[in-house]
Write a structure and sequence with these properties.
Number of helices: 1
Helix content: 55-70%
Keywords: Membrane, Mitochondrion, Mitochondrion inner membrane, Repeat, Transmembrane, Transmembrane helix, Transport
Shape: rod-shaped
Radius of gyration: 19 Å
Order of helices and strands: H
Pfam families: Mito_carr
Membrane topology: Multi-pass membrane protein
Oligomer: single chain
Main location: mitochondrion
Number of strands: 0
Distance between the termini: 50 Å
GO biological process, one term: mitochondrial transmembrane transport
Structural class: mainly alpha
Length: 50
Amino acid sequence: MGADKELGMFERALSAVGAAFVSAIIVNPLDVAKTRLQAQAAGVLYHQPA
């Protein structure tokens, strides 16, 4: 891809989907850990559903 070429609509959409996927993969486990730590600090026991 040359430096002068602009991305088309498909390339932009594909890049947005890729960025959202990577963001979800990174942020979700961190959010779960944060929530569990907050619950632990409040004295709430975590019970994993069967």
